[in-house]
Amino acid sequence: MNLRASLSLLVLLLGLSQAIPENEIEDNFLPEEEETVDMTARILDSNKRYSEVLVEGDLVVPKTRTAVNCWNNHCLWKKSSNGLVEVPYTLSSDFSYYEKMKLEYALATFHRKTCVRFVPRSSQNDYVSIENRNGCFSSLGRSGGKQVVSLNKYGCLHNGIIQHELSHALGFYHEQTRSDRDQYVRINWEYISPSVAYNFYVQNTNNLDTPYDYSSVMHYGRTAFSNQYGKETITPIPDESVQIGQSQGLSDIDILRINKLYDCNM
């Protein structure tokens, strides 16, 4: 290797060792185009390799609770006197520089548009550990102690999936299982195997006086858990042509809900 090539490599390595400031992430780091990413399929396919039971496809039942629930705000992250909701987190060293930048890009949306701040953990007891495990999954809300948000680097590192799992960690269910969903979607039980039907049970959710959001990053796609290829398990009503589910990231209503749940002054 000649001297010029060696110097170029050194400059590149030094550049990669420098973290991009958060206020520059939006301008200097853009994720790849993701219109064709089927978020639901990616999540469910990735989680086939996970050995424990996941509710609704990607929700872990915490050992500190007997069921997946988030009642009476007992699992929310605490708000500081400065009006910010700090969620301490650690990030696995398994992720490459580029993968870490994708994660930082996803976190930056919460920081710009809500009062939630994902902050590097120092000594906090309750924190989120973002890890490269077998699948895309999270527990619901603050479960106490270390709680894993799994984002497998080969299937889960898409902007919408990252924000989907982090929204679970903030306390949000899937849109298609919210308490009033039967007014907005039809569940086609004939295309759902009895062994996975529990994934479609309605939850006792706090809808925060916000409308049902077909475009929520928390909404699964039409064929989620289908036992027949291409057959819809979720159909919007009354207009069946409405698009449901997307992988781009938090919708306007997703952002509104975060701000309402955590009483953000935005």
TrEMBL record:
Keywords: Disulfide bond, Hydrolase, Metal-binding, Metalloprotease, Protease, Signal, Zinc, Zymogen. It is an enzyme of class 3 (hydrolase). Residues 66-265 form the Peptidase M12A domain. Its cofactor is Zn(2+). Its EC number is 3.4.24.-. The keyword Zinc applies. GO terms for biological process: proteolysis. Binds 1 zinc ion per subunit. One of its GO terms (molecular function) is zinc ion binding. Coiled coil: none annotated. The active site is at E165. Residues 1-19 form the signal peptide. Zn(2+) binds at H164, H168, H174. It comes from the Eukaryota. Pfam families: Astacin (PF01400). InterPro entries: MetalloPept_cat_dom_sf, Peptidase_M12A, Peptidase_Metallo, ZnMP_hatching_enz. This is Metalloendopeptidase. It comes from Chanos chanos (Milkfish).
